[in-house]
Automatic annotation (TrEMBL):
Keyword Transport attached: yes
Keyword tags: Cell membrane, Membrane, Transmembrane, Transmembrane helix, Transport
Primary location class: membrane
Protein name: ABC transporter permease
Keyword Transmembrane among UniProt keywords: yes
Subcellular location: Cell membrane
Residues of the ABC transmembrane type-1 domain: 95-299
UniProt cross-references to PANTHER family, sorted A to Z: DIPEPTIDE TRANSPORT SYSTEM PERMEASE PROTEIN DPPB-RELATED (PTHR43163:SF6)
Amino acid sequence: MARLILSRLLLMFMAMFVVMTAMFFGIRLGGTDPAIAIQGSYATAESVALLSESLGLDKPLWQQYVMYMTGLLRGDLGVSLQNGRPVLQQILQVLPNTFDLTFWGMVIGVVVGVPLGFISAIKRNTMWDQIIRVCTLASISMPPFIIAYLLLIVFAITFRMFPVNGGGDLDDLSSRASHLFLPAMALGLAVAAYIARLTRTSVLEIMSRDFIRTARAKGLSEYRVMSRHVLKLAWVGIVTLIGIYSAVSIGGSVAIELVFGRPGVGRLVIGAISQGDFTVIQGAIIFYAAFVSIVNMIVDVTYTFLDPRIRYT
């Protein structure tokens, strides 16, 4: 297990190195001069030159790259080109909101999606199966921000059960939870539809295998067959989807943050892109890459517990 974790950590650092390098050169070779983006199209050549010198943008690209990577090793993501505040400080300030939204959205997706998919499979071609399939198809057909708008209109504006916008007070649990419920539900329902459909397919495929028929022929109860064999193996595919959608969800949370006016890394990146603040963009992408890499490592480790036949070399 230790060897597996070490190998995945090594892969994670290599992947992040590639992401950071590609991002650095991609932004600087993109044709946009950050100094002009900051000062606007009416800036003089002298003021642009002075700003470029103060930001180190007049140095050769390789020197900028060495300075950038050296700063990262020290945990320095630089300062915002717009407000001069440390990028790390700005990201850490809004990161709890994004983490809350992504984590609880996935929890809702699993708690709702897995039972629905399981019921749909064991009740195949019945009325329950048809209802669940129609509901999941309808949820998949709607983007998460449409679901967010519907929840906002019904529960926040019409019935006034939850706050309309904002992220709440992070130090106040009730305020934090009330501001989080609808955004997490919007994200979770979208994820639940995919998990339910995958769970149904996985359970049906496993139930058709020979060892399941053998287990039933030996007299095992249906409960033991389902819990010890079918559902346990189905979790392998479900965990894979959770890993993939964790990465998708943190990107999809941007639209939901905008709908509910929640502070978060997504809104920070949108603002940075519109202002040409590439240091903030770089910092946010590093956090995204680290999050996705860590989730994938957890998924790989989880596989070995769910199915002992899976071994990594």
